[in-house]
Structure formats: C-alpha cells, structure tokens
Amino acid sequence: EHLVVYCKRMEEALEQQSRRKLKSYLSSLLKSITCPVCSDVVRLDVVQCVSGHVTCSVCVSGSDKCPTCKRPLSSVRPRCLVETLESLPKRRCNYRGCSSIVGKDDDHAVFCRWRITRCELCGWSGPGNDLEKHLKSVHPHPVLQVFPSFTTDNLNNIRTIPILLESGRIIWMKGSHPERSIIILTFYCAPRAKPNKKLFVSLKAHATNFVITTEINPDPDVNTENENFIALPNYVPKNLKEGCNLLHEITFFEE
C-alpha cells in the first residue's frame, strides 16, 4: 500500500514538473514571438532584423532599424514563423484595430480595411480605413468621386488619380506610355473590406466605335502587368473635326 502511494506521488511530481517545464517553454516561445513595440504576438506581416529579432512591419513603418537591437532590418521574412502563424486554426486578424476572428484559409487579411496601405501621391501609409479621410484632407483636388463615370479629353495627362466610387471603394488609376503610339491605364483597389460584387471598368471613345471593358481584380497586391489594365492606341481619328478633342468616357460598374 505504501508503495502504491509512493508511486502515485512520484507520478504527480513528474506531472507537475512536466507542466512547469511546458509552461516555461511556452513562456519562452511566446516571448520570442512578441513584438517589442506593440507587446502583442507578431502579425503575419512580420519582419526580422539581421540578428533574428522579429516585429510587426507596421510597428517599424518608416524605420530600417530593429527596435530591439538597433541593427538593420532584413528583407528576408522568417518563413517558419509565418507558416506557424498561418497554421493556427483560428486567430484574431493580424492588423491592429481589427477585431475579426479568421480561419486558416480565410482571405479576410487581403481585403481588411485595417490593412496598411500607401498613398500613391505623397507616400503616406496607414490603414485602408483612413485612406479616404487622408485623400480628402491632403489631396482634395486630384480625388475623383465617380458616380459612376467621368469624361476626359486628354488621356495623355493622366498620371496617378485616386477614384472614390459610390460603393465606397477606392481605386488608383495610373496612366503610362510605354510607346508613343500606346496609352496604358492600370487600376488597383485599396483595401476597404472584401467586396461582394465584381467590379468592371469600361472605356469609350466618343466619335469612334472604340469601346473596351475589363474586370478589375480587387486584390490590392494584383500584378497589373497581367491584369487590371486597358491598352489603347494613342491617335486622333481622321474624321474628328479640326480643333476638337477626342472625349473618352470611363465608367465603373459592379455586377
């Protein structure tokens, strides 16, 4: 009987010791993946310095130094840590300010309105939720409020224009001229929440039969070399009266 009691006590002692070791291990692990700036578990947009310290990219926005050791930040992401964070079955959205609970395969983070985005006019960075306020207060002139179309008589003057749609979406439109005979307009969306409708843009040249329509991929990280662009010839039709400009109507619509 005494032997049985002794064995049970030894078993309990070993279990307590194992729990203490596990608790110590988890505490050390948690400390190693805690951002030194926000004191929270690092988000998926994690960056590391050349010494291996990790932090949220938004917490060191505008800096190239590690907040822990002051050494340079590395361009190499800690892949193992990112994969570990992504493998969690359920987690809070990684963007500060967002309280959404998302699953492993949820694409919420792609469109989250708290995701950090950049103003293409001045370089300001902040949550997509604050972009409209920034544009209206700092860049009121270039902002186009489109309900649902606008007309221009000179596509060559288009460089970078923020477009605010009636639905609340913000689209950046950029014009480029890779060749003198071609104009390319590219479009991409700022993160403002996942859309529930498809978005299209249509360009019509007045006084001609030229009309082109394309779907806009709402992913803010879209590669505009492969999609989200309109290419059109840069010329003036012969039948256009002298002194007149060729009007182009650009229309955005959802389906």
From TrEMBL:
<dbReference type="InterPro" id="IPR004162">
    <property type="entry name" value="SINA-like_animal"/>
</dbReference>
<dbReference type="GO" id="GO:0005737">
    <property type="term" value="C:cytoplasm"/>
</dbReference>
<keyword id="KW-0479">Metal-binding</keyword>
<dbReference type="GO" id="GO:0008270">
    <property type="term" value="F:zinc ion binding"/>
</dbReference>
<dbReference type="GO" id="GO:0043161">
    <property type="term" value="P:proteasome-mediated ubiquitin-dependent protein catabolic process"/>
</dbReference>
<dbReference type="InterPro" id="IPR001841">
    <property type="entry name" value="Znf_RING"/>
</dbReference>
<dbReference type="GO" id="GO:0031624">
    <property type="term" value="F:ubiquitin conjugating enzyme binding"/>
</dbReference>
<keyword id="KW-0863">Zinc-finger</keyword>
<feature type="domain" description="RING-type">
    <location>
        <begin position="35"/>
        <end position="70"/>
    </location>
</feature>
<dbReference type="Pfam" id="PF21362">
    <property type="entry name" value="Sina_RING"/>
</dbReference>
<keyword id="KW-0862">Zinc</keyword>
<dbReference type="GO" id="GO:0061630">
    <property type="term" value="F:ubiquitin protein ligase activity"/>
</dbReference>
<dbReference type="InterPro" id="IPR049548">
    <property type="entry name" value="Sina-like_RING"/>
</dbReference>
<protein>
    <recommendedName>
        <fullName>RING-type domain-containing protein</fullName>
    </recommendedName>
</protein>
<dbReference type="InterPro" id="IPR013083">
    <property type="entry name" value="Znf_RING/FYVE/PHD"/>
</dbReference>
